[in-house]
TrEMBL record:
Alphabetical keyword list: ATP-binding, Nucleotide-binding, Transport
Highest taxon in the source lineage: Bacteria
Transmembrane stretches, start-end: none
A Pfam family of this chain: ABC_tran
Name of protein: ABC transporter related protein
GO molecular function: ATP binding; ATP hydrolysis activity
Domain ABC transporter stretches: 6-233
Matches recorded under PROSITE patterns: ABC_TRANSPORTER_1 (PS00211), ABC_TRANSPORTER_2 (PS50893)
């Protein structure tokens, strides 16, 4: 049976009269990767800070490892905060060792682990460099290593992908996967859906401080109407031919062909559309059931206006 290691119950937080988090509840299960998703300003960082006891909720409660988020519990957590920043004048290996020692790892072991992780994170040869000589992305990787070096059982990463180039975003996805394979629990926030779609067992979606979805990626994709694109060489009016099979719209012609999209009504599938076309002698140039992505579910659940900010950063 799965074990809930973090549970937020009806948690709310208001700053200067402006609600940031409104009555949010969700749980994080041991050994799973949970994505905490939402547009800018949705309340993700505030919720993560409340999860760790950095902020106290105005109402509702937080349970971490079955109790209040006390300092002793935090030794079992690795937290990457949204504000990046490590000691610029220190050497890379000294920074990593320092964070490991804060969490109770012995000096020799901390150094050994730090050097191994620099290799794993494809940062060989920077151990003795000063942090200030690193690029922003490299410094962020060092900060992520510092978050993981004490081998925490619960890893919380606030927007870990932002600031990394696509190659390093990919590398970080693999690191998150390896942490989960090693039995660790991961909770990360992001407003870029692609990472969550590839990585997560569970997603929690928030918008304007409220939870709007909590479930698997598959369930989220199930919220999006299934779509078929039909390109026809004949002048049939598909809106009449396919009436009752879903929402039908005619788009811009392609190479002189008419292009229609059909958002399938529930209980109708792509084969029904295909059969209706074939039975009526419609000449098909293309018939394409469109695979929904998490981004589509996000837009569907949150609304296009709320996603405007989230569009600004892509992988
Ligand atoms: N310390 C604070 N004082 C005042 N307002 C705050 C504070 N922290 C957050 N807020 C406000 O609370 C709301 C939620 O912010 P939060 O940082 O939790 O969102 P987020 O989902 O993490 O956004 P982003 O993706 O942009 O980091 C925002 O309107 C923000 O301006």
């Amino acid at each position: 049976m799965s074990e809930t290691i973090l549970e937020l119950s009806n948690v709310s937080k208001t700053f200067a009269g402006k609600p940031a988090v409104r009555d949010v509840s969700f749980g994080v299960q041991r050994g799973r990767i949970t994505g905490f998703l939402g547009p800018n300003g949705a309340g993700k960082t505030t919720s993560l800070r409340m999860s760790l006891g950095i902020l106290t909720p105005d109402s509702g409660s937080v349970s971490l490892f079955g109790g209040k988020p006390r300092p002793a519990a935090l030794d079992r957590v690795g937290f990457l905060p949204e504000e990046r920043g490590i000691y610029r004048k220190m050497k890379v290996i000294d920074v990593i060792t320092f964070f490991a020692r804060l969490k109770g790892v012995g000096a020799a072991e901390a150094r050994k682990r730090g050097l191994a992780m620099l290799e794993e994170f494809e940062l060989p040869g920077v151990a003795e460099s000063k942090v200030k000589t690193l690029s922003k992305g490299m410094a962020q990787k060092v900060q992520i290593i510092s978050t993981l070096v004490h081998e925490p059982e619960f890893i919380i990463l606030d927007e870990p992908f932002s600031g990394l180039d696509p190659v390093n975003q990919n590398a970080l996805e693999q690191i998150v996967r390896r942490q989960a394979e090693a039995g660790r629990t991961v909770l990360f926030s992001t407003h870029v859906m692609e990472h969550a779609e590839r990585l997560c067992d569970q997603i929690v979606l928030v918008a304007k401080g409220r939870k709007v979805f909590d479930g698997s990626v598959k369930d989220a994709l199930g919220e999006v109407p299934r779509r078929v694109t039909v390109e026809v060489t004949s002048e049939h009016d598909l809106s009449q031919l396919l009436a009752g099979k879903g929402e039908i719209a005619r788009g811009e012609p392609v190479d002189g062909n008419a292009v229609w999209t059909v958002d399938l009504a529930s209980g109708t599938d792509a084969q029904d559309v295909l059969k209706a076309c074939v039975d009526s002698g419609v000449k098909l140039a293309r018939f394409e059931p469109v695979r929904a992505h998490l981004h589509d579910a996000f837009v569907h659940l949150v609304g296009a206006s709320a996603t405007a900010n989230a569009e600004t950063e892509t992988v």
